[in-house]
From TrEMBL:
Ranges of residues in domain RING-Gid-type: 328-371
SMART domains: CRA, CTLH, RING
Keyword Glycoprotein: no
Lineage: Eukaryota, Viridiplantae, Streptophyta, Embryophyta, Tracheophyta
Zn-finger region bounds: RING-Gid-type: 328-371
UniProt protein name: Uncharacterized protein
Biological process terms in GO annotation: proteasome-mediated ubiquitin-dependent protein catabolic process
Biological source species: Pisum sativum (Garden pea)
GO terms assigned for molecular function: ubiquitin protein ligase activity; zinc ion binding
GO cellular component annotations of the record: cytoplasm; GID complex; nucleus
Amino acid sequence: MELNSIKDAFERVAKKQKLCSSKSQETVDQVGHEIEQALATLQSPQDPSIPADQKAVLTELKSKLNAIGSLKQLEGPHKELNSSLVKYQKLLEKSLNPDISKAYRNVDFDTHIISQIIASHFYRQGLFDLGDNILNEAGEPNATALRSQFLEMHQVIEAMRARNIQPALTWVSANSEKLAQIGSNLELKVHTLQYVEIVQNGTQADALKYSRTYLARFAESYKDDFQKLMGCLMYIRRLENSPYFELLSPIHWETTTEELARQFCSLMGHSYESPLSMVFAAGVEGLPTLLKLANVMAAKKQEWQEMDQLPVPVELGKEFQFHSIFVCPVSRDQASEENPPMLLPCLHVLCKQSILKLSKNSTRTFKCPYCPAETTVAHCRQVYF
């Protein structure tokens, strides 16, 4: 992969630079040491009544400096470093094409959706004024609900980071049923943070009252967690010296705050990660492949923008895969809405276009490419992932 070769080349240049710097410093230290010794001899003669022979001292110094060969010692490493830098520059020019417009493909985007995506990206970061300006310039006055949702989320998150848990408690209580429906234990986590604070700084009566009011209903569904929390009652104000001391770790606040942000976005119908950030990151990862494809197609005098499907796969990491992908084992085409996966009675799956070709456009029965079973198009069923 090109990025890996660039990284390897950079590491080689960095290694050469460190070696050159080390060698240069060693040579400079040797020269400095000899000069300091010569100065000491000139300034401190053995017999104060007899002045030092300056000419002899300087002649000896010159002889020692010539023996060190400082110029030659500095030239070698610097030449190697310069050579590596030149090669690295050529590799960058060859691998990194500054004209990324070659990978651009004309797409009719919905400008309203794009404006909301950009604004929501800034809202996620708490840059509400910037998001407002984007929407105002785009003529999107009806996005106040989007702003208010992210504003509430940021207020709750900022309060959590300041160890003010009350806004989070209010939010999880108001959304208790929705959180339970998606199987989230966020409400228990938030109440656990408050309960631990009471155990560490309050009284046993306060902790017991809080557990009965807010934690008792989790006793069956989260039995192990509930038993651990009840065990804390034996160590009021000395939890750090108990078997449950790890509950005091700041990591619980950090992970609960992150989980709170995730569930907040989920209940709003938004992804936790900014769609704009994800698209940009995916584009950066896929850009080298697209640029290479554009160059190859240009050399063959073909226009890749007119293709319905890319002729090469664009490999992206798992973090960019949001749904199942089916590739027809016969045509090697990726399934799409126009060419969906179809289940044969023999339980093998092919894409619709492959089935139509095998059946001569539904005019006859056909044999499954992977087993002896025969069937017709009418007996095939579309598969939904």
